[in-house]
Amino acid sequence: MQRPLVRALTLLALLFLFLLGVNGLGDAFKSLGRGLLDSFFLATENPFVGLAVGILATTLVQSSSVTTSLIVGLVAAPEHALPIANAVPMVMGANIGTTVTNTLVSLAHMGRKDEFYRAFSVATCHDFFNYMAVVILLPLEMATGYLQKTATWLASFLTGLGGVQYDSPIKGALKAALRPIKSGIGAVAGSEKAQAILLILLSGLLIYFALLFLVKVMRGAMSARVERMVSRGLYRSPLVAIILGIVVTVMVQSSSITTSLLVPLAGAGLLTLEQAFPITIGANIGTTVTAFLAALAVTGPNAIAGVTIALVHLLFNLTGTLIIYPFRRVREIPLKAARWLARLAVKSKVLAIAYVIVLFYGLPALFAWMHRAL
């Protein structure tokens, strides 16, 4: 009885620290000078640079949840906010970057060819699905603004529902907790800009470590239950598998855990690529919940913008799923690509490692270099 209570209190404390980090990030950008932010925002006006930023940030912190939470904080900053149009490609990039974790997990099976083929194909189908979604939806977004406009319209119905936007106990608690942190930073750093930069770093660390330990605590509490749920859902309909992927990811607050759990199961021959694919898609949708949690922490006139970018993340994953998964020939593209790449990777381990380096680091760096060259 005592153990579940301690776990519940720990989860609440970690969630509070996570929201505190998002709130601190917004306050820091409010006090940071316009000039430093202008160069960053100007760079991310190029959607390919925004995409590259999202990929690189996520591969470095190994979590799309951290990246999207930071993006929510940037978009919802009371002053000098990141424009939503600039943030949309960053969210898409975060979706791609999050697949690096399960791809790295699959490399652990390199020693046995059959295992590696199965594990690598299940890991990389997630990569190909997300890249396909970006290839389809990024040009559509650039041409029509579909995601931003739809999310803005939906967010207008949610205005006022996130109670922390107003004088709620949560808002008061966050402000009270942030006050001594700001005072401490003020005692260490002299200038306002230095204080803002320190607050950004500290807020980013709070978000990262709060999510890291939140995931660990939830994984410890749910690991046996999650494994049972996955094993039960393997042989059911694709719709059940997608829902399973959503539920498990919401429970553990990490799509990386859900998809990485599938890799060893596939390597052991307990799971086929066709069975893993819908669970992976469900994990993509489930991970958007974290951005909504982050949106609850932001305050001020741009608070609704935080909700809007959280909705952009959800709409991107839902639209990608509806465009790709229901149609057999389209659905087969990421599966066939994953099998083809897995066959090549089995023949050359160097190629498998090069794939990870090029896809998650080389291409984003190339996008950034092309922007500077142009």
Give an account of the 3D structure.
The protein has 374 residues and is mainly α. It has one domain. 84% of the residues lie in helices and 0% in strands. The protein has 17 helices and no strands. Helix 3 crosses helix 17 (349-373), helix 10 packs across helix 11 (238-252) and helix 14 packs antiparallel against helix 15 (303-324).
Q: Can I get a quick summary?
A:
The chain has one domain (about 1-374).
Strand tally is: 0
Termini separation comes to 62 Å
Summarize the helix and strand pattern as letters: HHHHHHHHHHHHHHHHH
In DSSP terms (H or I, runs of 4 or more residues), the helix count works out at 17
Q: What is the residue-mean pLDDT, rounded to a whole number?
A: 77
- Percent of residues in helices: over 70%
* Overall spatial form: globular
Instruction: Determine the strand fraction and express it as a percent band.
Output: under 5%
SS content category: mainly alpha
The largest sheet, given as strand count, sense and whether it forms a barrel, is: none
- Radius of gyration, in angstroms, nearest whole number: 21 Å
Overall number of domains? 1
Poorly predicted tracts of residues: 33-38, 161-168
